Amino acid sequence: MPTLLPAIFAQQAHLPRHELWVVMVNDDPPGESAEVLDALQKEFARLRVVRGRKRGLGVAYQRGFAYALETLAPQLLVQMDGDWQHDPAALPALVRACAPGVAAVVGSRFAPGGATPAFSWRRRATSHVGNWLIHHLTGLPHLHDYTSGFRCLDAAALARCLEGCRADKLATRGYAFQSSLITELLLTGAPVVEVPIQFGQRRYGDSKLGGRDYLEFALNLRRLRARCQRRPARSLARGTGG
């Protein structure tokens, strides 16, 4: 975070119509990390740290979203990872593409112009299979990358979609939350846009994607299919932008 946060806040110069804040969700921080984060909050006035018990990626996302929606009243929210695989330099393109009436902009690894140079063939194949399954089993409008974790979201649409995920008992605990949320966004009737990104090398930490997450994803596909059959997607996913 001491290297990532300056790079994020540096994008403020390219976003003159927006005031950039960062909400960092940090579950079960060890004492040393807590000291670092306290120092960073003193350095960056528009940084907020949300702490909680580790219960899965989806739960962490929802905690961060809820805090931002309730305390900052944002127009847009960008979700991104903190390991440098999501390049802060892409933030202005995502925000600019999230025009009024757009539900979400997906930083797409697999749209034309996107790339995953650090992926192994196994990881790339897994992602492509997951995206294929979501599209063909649910009938959702086509996206190249349903599971990307780099997204710019319309705040009002996000608030409604979080309620929809909970009401329909869609997966909201682990990595499958990504596909649950994009399903709800596609069902809003507003466009979802893809912007190609370069998905970089992880500089810090390790992947937490495990067997339990694959199982949750598979089980959630059945719920997503039922959700879409009850309420067919009305929106059209748009092509890439810059």
Could you characterize the architecture of this molecule?
This protein is 42% helix and 14% strand. The strands form two sheets. The chain has a five-stranded mixed beta sheet, with helices on both faces. Helix 2 links the parallel strand 1 and strand 2. The radius of gyration is 17 Å and the shape is globular. The chain has a single domain, classed as Alpha-Beta Complex (Spore Coat Polysaccharide Biosynthesis Protein SpsA, Chain A), CATH 3.90.550. By secondary structure, the chain is of the alpha/beta class. The chain is built from eight helices and seven strands. Helix 5 packs parallel to helix 8. The longest helix has 20 residues.
The count of β-strands is: 7
Looking at the overall shape, the CATH architecture is Alpha-Beta Complex
Share of helix, binned:
40-55%
Count of helices?
8
Give the ordered list of helices and strands: HEHEHEHEHEHHEHE
Q: For the largest beta sheet, what order do the strands appear in spatially?
A: 3-5-4-6-7
Structural class: alpha/beta
Largest beta-sheet details:
5 strands, mixed
Beta-strand share of residues: 5-15%
Radius of gyration: 17 Å
Mean pLDDT: 85
Spatial separation of the terminal alpha carbons: 27 Å
Shape label: globular
The CATH topology name reads Spore Coat Polysaccharide Biosynthesis Protein SpsA, Chain A
Name given to the CATH homologous superfamily: Spore Coat Polysaccharide Biosynthesis Protein SpsA, Chain A
Just give the CATH class.
Answer: Alpha Beta
In the predicted model, the low-confidence regions spanning at least 5 consecutive residues are none
The figure for the number of domains is: 1
